[in-house]
Amino acid sequence: MVFALVAAFVGRLVDVQLVEARGLDAQAASTQQVTETLPGLRGAIVARDGTVLAASVPRYDVTAAPVHVAAFTGTLGGTRTKRISVATALAAIAHAADVPGATAATMRAAVRADPSSQFAYLAKGLTVAEHEAVSKLDVPWVYSIEQTQRSYPDGAAVGNLTGFVGTDGAQAGLELADDTCLAGHSGSETYDRSGSGVALPGTTRVVRAARDGDTLRTTIDADMQYQAEQDIATAGTTMGAQSATAIVMDAHTGAVRALADWPTVDPDDVTPTAEHDPAALGSQALTAAYEPGSTIKAVTAAALLQEGAATPTSAVSVPDTRTFPWGGTIGDAEAHPTEPLTLTGVLAQSSNVGITLLGQRLSEQTRYRYLEAFGLFQQDPALTFPGQPSWPQQQSPTWDAQTDVNSMFGQGITATALQVAGVYQTLANGGVRVSPHIVEGCADASGRIVSDEPHVTSTRVVSATTAKEVVDMLQSTTDPAADGTLSNMQPIPGYTLSLKTGTAQIALSGGRGYGPDTIVSVEGMVPAADPRWIVAVAFTKPQTSKLSSVAAPAFRALTSQVLERYRVPPGPGATTYPTRW
User: Fold this and answer.
1) Measured between alpha carbons, how far is 64 from 306 in angstroms, rounded to an integer?
2) Element (DSSP H or E) covering residue 64
């Protein structure tokens, strides 16, 4: 019997140590060795001066093990040791956490939902300071889970550009467009633990290091962005507009310093916008194509000058309406007798009839070619922003005779607000178009640019002489003697402005013509003698007035802030041409 018992033990020992050894070793290793993910932080989005517009910050979820929740002896963050009840502890945690929804009552309910459980949430999304306050309470059955959360310090002021990150990743704006730059890459580490589940000191091994995402550098001036946002919000509310945009652009480089939309989205809380105005989740200045109206007359004028078909003083007799053989009719904003205007006068008074009488000196194909060269009908490769429109129907001038006429004063064709601002950047920059852009590039931890985006290009569109003539002609827009469309705008002392207004009718659905609503805008180049900045504002469906002059106060306010912020010195007086013959 003894021999048989010993033989059985020996047999089992051989089976365990030799036959089953490999499997048991693997099972033991898997039980004792734990692998955890090391998350790579998402990179920051920063303004041109390094101001953080979006960043990943640590946040903490406070949890408890309900099975262990009980009264205990401790200080609860104080100096005197005492017996502390569960109710007192939960009240102290709620006070220290100070986050919405985390009250003593909700915590008590979470704990009581399953008293035998090892896990229950007490509070979510605590900041570092709030987490430290909870930790100092030293409640034995409370634990913390660290995570990262996307934070947008400037909130809604720049939410239209940054976009936001949701539970499914990047959702909109630059977060989505430049996700490759911003996304971090996770790593992993392993450690050994005891049978009771406690990590063994000194056993942690990094299998693969995590890599944080790179930094996306933008061209945005955070302070100017905020000013532009406030200006159009105030003006839009006053005039009862549906929406508004504002743009400030460097005339020489095409870098956008401010691109504001109203209404806009708060990336820290997108729910209200998503429920009430989904179109405002992005930037309508980049994604909404509209008929720009009279601001396009500057392109028609530049084409006439460049082709030698007109000069700033070319004479034309301008009635207030014009009827065409196919039955179409166009008219100026106000009734007037036939006027002897020059091309300069046509621009100053923004005459639809006058610009078509002169514009017909050029062929349809020639005028289309200039519109395209100024940046219309195409997506610019320097902008990778999601949701930009395309123009498949306008890749060549196949429009009908009426649209051909209307295109000379910006109706029947569409563009984005940034594209229209780009027209004036070209004119202000001596006829050289530089791709409008909002991103400088993607930079690694050392600050080195590691991507070749954006694809900024420079293209000469018209000669420097043509560009200067158009800039000078547009100074008459604010001249009372020329009856300019903004002759009533309060001047900015010491500065001359080169402006063009636009009052674009909004087309009705189903091709039923145009309704009573308008989009009013002002495009400016300042200072006129040597344009350095492009300032543009546009308002959709204003109710106090349908004319572009209603946008003048907002334009003036933003322009004054631009001149002050960038220390633009005053310049000489206006240089222009006769508006009548």
Assistant:
1) 75
2) strand 52-64
Instruction: Quote the CA–CA distance of 240 and 260 in Å, as a whole number.
Output: 18
Three-state SS for 522-572 is EEEEECCCCCCEEEEEEEECCCCCCCHHHHHHHHHHHHHHHHHHCCCCCCC
List the one residue out of 506, 481, 500 whose CA is nearest residue 552. 500
Contacts of 488 (CB under 8 A, 6+ apart): 480, 549, 552
Tokens of 233: 């919000």
Whole-number mean pLDDT of the chain?
91
Mean pLDDT, to the nearest integer, of 317-331?
95
Q: 3-class DSSP state for residue 102?
A: coil
Side-chain-side CA neighbours of residue 142 (13 Å): 26
Are the CB atoms for 108 and 45 separated by under 8 Å?
Answer: no
Q: Is the omega angle on the peptide bond into residue 58 within 30 degrees of 0, that is, cis?
A: no
Contact in structure between 173 and 386 (CB atoms under 8 Å): yes
Please, are residues 411 and 420 in contact by the beta-carbon 8 Å criterion? no
Task: Give backbone dihedrals phi and psi of 443, rounded to 5 degrees, phi first.
Answer: -115, 140
Alpha-carbon span 581 to 575, nearest angstrom: 18
- pLDDT the model gives residue 118: 85
Q: Measured at the alpha carbon of residue 103, what is the angle toward residues 102 and 105, in degrees to the nearest 5?
A: 125
Q: What φ, ψ does residue 278 adopt, rounded to 5°?
A: -55, -25
Amino acid at 492: I
pLDDT at res. 12: 78
Q: Going by DSSP bridges, is the β-strand pair 142-151/165-166 parallel, antiparallel, or unpaired?
A: unpaired
pLDDT tens-digit readout, 426-481: 999 999 999 999 999 999 988 888 876 688 999 999 999 999 999 999 999 999 99
Q: Could you give the CA distance from residue 96 to residue 501 in angstroms, rounded to a whole number? A: 56
Residue type, 387: G
Q: CA–CA separation, 501 vs 506, rounded Å?
A: 16
- Candidates 293, 289, 298, 339; CA nearest to 318 is 339
Determine the pLDDT at residue 277: 84
- Give me the half-sphere count of Cα atoms (radius 13 Å) on the Cβ side of residue 18: 6
DSSP states of 139-200:
-TTEEEEEEEEEE-TTTHHHHHHH--EETTEE-SHHHHHTHHHH--B-EEEEEEB-TTSPBP
* Burial group, residue 12, by CB count within 10 angstroms (0-12, 13-18, 19+): exposed
Give the residues across from 433 on adjacent strands: 459
pLDDT band with cut points at 50, 70 and 90 for residue 536: very high
The Cα–Cα gap between 467 and 465 comes to 5
d(CA 371, CA 378) in angstroms, rounded, equals 10
CA angle 463, 469, 473 (to 5 degrees): 150
Helices (H), 218-292: 222-239, 271-276, 284-287
DSSP letter string over 346-376?
A: HHHHT-HHHHHHHHTTS-HHHHHHHHHHTT-
CA distance 133 to 97: 7
- Whether residue 527 is preceded by a cis peptide bond, meaning omega within 30 degrees of 0, is yes
